[in-house]
Design goal:
789 residues; alpha+beta; Phosphorylase Kinase, domain 1; Transferase(Phosphotransferase), domain 1; Rossmann fold; six-stranded mixed β-sheet; 52% helix; elongated
């Protein structure tokens, strides 16, 4: 590792402050660009090293830092972010977001791009420019080489504000000739007339630059690429470029008009703002609008056209096609019925902050899921796309959604920077984007603003209840909120160690803010999920905490779902359980876990058709979750539809050969069908891989018993008995093995113990095929009546 040499030269291994240079990735009149590694935040960045002498004195350096600081506040999804600036051993440098991918010039490669791609990328370019212009920043060097495409196809504008940062600020700095400007300010072919004439540049200069980029995208070449250099400046100043429709006859006339307007010689004749350009581009591929093609143009009688339009309007209005009545009477936005929130990007690249960024994603999904009439994909399925290289249209097709929310989070001490954008997925068109720079304690405020902005954009009217819902749950104490997010993160890990960590964080949050309702819902979930305590101990604690949460805020859908499960599995209060589970789905229509819990309830109550209906809802909300597939498999199992059960659980095993639950479902189904060898094989593998888990042992014992291997079955019972001396083993497990062995007295003895213990597995008594050997015994009917089944 080295420092910069005395002439300010840098190379791989050079250390500039906390940045270690890895490789050179570019060069230009403003200096060399390197990929470097930020050793503090463990992330790659791009570093632009200014030529020696560019900033010749301290006042120049202060001005540079002031401009760089202003540019660092420019935060938009289509603009490469400036992170830092500094001086080390005489080397002045600027630190920017490193963007993997390709430049737009590489994508073009001398060939026209499809019109749809041009409109999508052009819209992103215009929106990035608009955000910059609103803050008084212009680029003045737009060209395909300064535009980069991420792996997801997102366009990022590089070198923003170069016109400001490149200007010599010392008397000794060299003056520029036009040839030098070609290096420093971009190729002459991309310059606007006012730049060549030395006039002041403004936002309209960037409009001209955007026009040259669009021109090259639709034709594969620059506007004056074929003119010899001696005549080039005169052509840029006085000659209109060849119309793009003559070079690309299949292009829509409207896109040709937009590009021509961008390239007007006089700034006053161009689009006067990037926002205007963005609007015109978005109209080309707005949902439900097709781009007119030259070959489709026909001449019609004006009278006939008028009558046709009136007739179509009348029909559309009568049937409200496309929501036309809402549009006419002022309802704005794009019609969107389904949405997915992709995992927010953690710009800190700090693993210790993962819980916070994941927590923001979860809370955003939770808040949107409350909106009636909007289908929101669950966290489980959305997390499949963390770090994916799939394009947004591909993701939307897989999830069957109309729109996608994506964004980023940077938490730096007490500072929070959040960007969020809403994209119409089929066309990859931005509908809304916003960045927020707040104190980290304003976490909930940012969440609320994002949700309301999205609801407004997609033309969903929030009811007063939806607007108010959840506000009672928010805490003004960031330490409590932070501990809660950490608890939720560890709860979702699904391990016993994770559950213990979650409990500690929830208890810490409750100590900090005793009135913070979600914390008690978290503690209820711990006691509900843990296997370390017998039901007699765990269930009352879970009920105590969930009731405390709902006393503080009755609008918590997850708390109602947990209470429903407690009433179901713990209290055997069937009407109460159904009431709470239905309440959870009413409060949060897209809360997949509530629908899944309700489907389990209906299934084990013997209401198979209703259970399957709920399962289909879950599959729409959580299509990529193996838990969803398994839930469907168990519903089919309890309705005795064994072929579909094998199909569903087999899919999970294909996706995850190590899935314990998939093997359990397959083993149980094989056993119910009488395929004993297949059942034994599945259960043997489970027992070998799960350290003699009592549930798996019981299933293996039942399989041995029904296969006629009584000795092996009784050996399993002995192992279960030994295990019960060390920790709690649900009596229901003993009942299933004894039922398979034909020992009814022992089976009913175990069932009586299960009844006394409030064994949660007893709720499946009515539908479980494992209980079939006992169903003709009068004692079984008596037990069903006692349990009100």
């Amino acid at each position: 590792m080295t420092s910069a040499d005395t002439k300010g030269k840098c190379g791989p291994g050079t250390i500039l402050g906390r940045y270690q240079i890895k490789e050179k990735i570019g060069a230009g009149g403003m200096g060399e660009v390197f990929r470097a590694h930020d050793q503090n935040l463990d992330r790659d960045v791009a570093i632009k090293v200014l030529p020696p002498g560019t900033l010749g004195d301290e006042s120049a350096r202060k001005r540079f830092h002031k401009e760089a600081l202003a540019l660092s506040k420019l935060n938009h999804p289509n603009v490469a972010t400036i992170h830092d600036f500094g001086t080390e051993q005489g080397v002045d440098f600027l630190v920017m977001e490193y963007i993997a991918g390709i430049t737009l010039s590489e994508k073009i490669g001398g060939r026209p791009l499809p019109e749809k791609d041009v409109v999508i990328l052009g819209t992103q370019l215009a929106e990035g420019l608009s955000a910059a212009h609103e803050q008084g920043v212009v680029h003045c060097d737009l060209k395909p080489g300064n535009l980069r495409l991420t792996d997801r196809g997102r366009l990022k504008i590089l070198d923003f504000g170069q016109a400001k940062l490149r200007l010599p600020v010392t008397p000794t700095a060299p003056t520029e000739s036009v040839s030098e400007m070609q290096v420093m300010a971009g190729t002459l072919l991309y310059m606007a007339p006012e730049q060549l004439l030395g006039r002041e540049s403004d936002a309209r200069t960037d409009i001209h630059g955007a026009g040259t980029v669009l021109y090259e995208m639709v034709t594969g070449k620059q506007p004056f690429a074929e003119i010899e250099r001696a005549r080039l400046i005169g052509a840029i100043l006085n000659t209109p470029p060849r119309p793009v429709t003559t070079l690309n006859p299949g292009l829509s006339p409207e896109l040709g008009r937009i590009i021509a307007k961008c390239l007007e010689k006089e700034p006053g004749n161009r689009f006067q703002s990037a926002r205007e350009l963005s609007i015109d581009l978005r109209r080309l591929f707005s949902p439900g609008t097709s781009v007119p093609q030259n070959e489709k143009r026909r001449r019609f009688s004006p009278a006939l056209v008028g009558l046709t339009v009136l007739a179509l309007l009348a029909i559309s209005f009568a049937f409200d096609l496309g929501g036309i009545r809402a549009r006419i009477f002022g309802r704005r936005g794009t019609a969107i019925q389904a949405i997915a929130v992709l995992p927010l990007e953690d710009l800190s690249n700090d693993q210790s902050q993962k819980y916070f960024v994941d927590g923001m994603t979860d809370e955003l999904i939770t808040d949107l899921a409350r909106i009636k009439g909007l289908r929101v994909i669950s966290r489980t399925s959305a997390m499949h796309y963390q770090g994916t290289r799939k394009t947004l249209p591909e993701i939307a097709r897989e999830l069957n959604v109309d729109a996608i929310v994506e964004g980023s989070v940077l938490r730096d001490g007490s500072h929070l920077r959040v960007t969020a954008q809403l994209i119409h997925a089929p066309t990859d068109t931005h509908l809304w984007a916003q960045s927020y720079q707040r104190d980290v304690s304003d976490f909930w405020v940012v969440q609320t603003e994002v949700v309301r902005a999205i609801a407004n954009e997609i033309a969903v009217r929030l009811t007063p209840q939806e607007q108010a819902r959840g506000t009672a749950s928010h805490t003004t104490n960031f330490a409590a909120q932070d501990a809660y997010l950490n608890g939720r993160y560890h709860l979702q890990l699904g391990t016993e160690d994770g559950l213990r960590e979650a409990k500690a964080y929830f208890e810490e949050a409750a100590r900090i803010d005793p009135g913070y309702a979600p914390v008690y819902a978290g503690l209820a979930d711990y006691y509900w999920l843990t296997n370390e305590l017998p039901p007699k101990v765990a269930m009352p604690k879970a009920a105590e905490y969930v009731n405390k949460a709902l006393a503080l805020d009755d609008s918590l859908a997850d708390a109602h779902a947990t209470l429903g499960s407690i009433k179901f599995y713990g209290d055997w209060d069937w009407p109460g359980a159904e009431r709470e589970l239905q309440r959870a789905t009413e409060l949060s229509p897209s809360y997949a876990e509530a629908h899944r819990a309700y489907s389990e309830f209906l299934s084990e109550m013997g209401r198979g058709d209703q259970a399957l209906k709920e399962t289909r809802i879950v599959q729409d909300l959580d299509p990529l979750s193996t838990t969803t597939m398994l839930a469907a498999g168990w519903v089919f199992y309890y309705t005795r539809d064994y072929e579909h059960a094998l199909e569903q659980c087999g899919k999970v095993k294909e996706l995850d050969p190590h899935s314990v639950s998939a093997r359990d479902c397959l083993g149980s189904t094989h056993l119910a069908k009488g395929d004993y060898d297949l059942a034994i094989a599945e259960y043997r593998a489970l027992v070998d891989s799960s350290s003699n888990d009592p549930l798996r042992l019981a299933s293996l014992g039942s399989a041995y018993a029904l296969a006629g291997q009584e000795g092996q079955a009784r050996k399993v019972v002995a192992e279960m008995t030994a295990a019960s001396a060390a920790h709690y083993v649900p009596p229901y497990f003993f009942a299933t093995v004894n039922a398979a062995l034909g020992d009814h007295d022992k089976a009913f003895s175990s069932l009586e113990k299960a009844y006394a213990d409030r064994d949660s597995y007893l709720v499946r008594l009515k539908v479980d095929p494992a209980m079939d050997p006992l169903r003709s015994d009068p004692r079984f009917e008596t037990l069903l009546r006692r349990m009100k089944l």
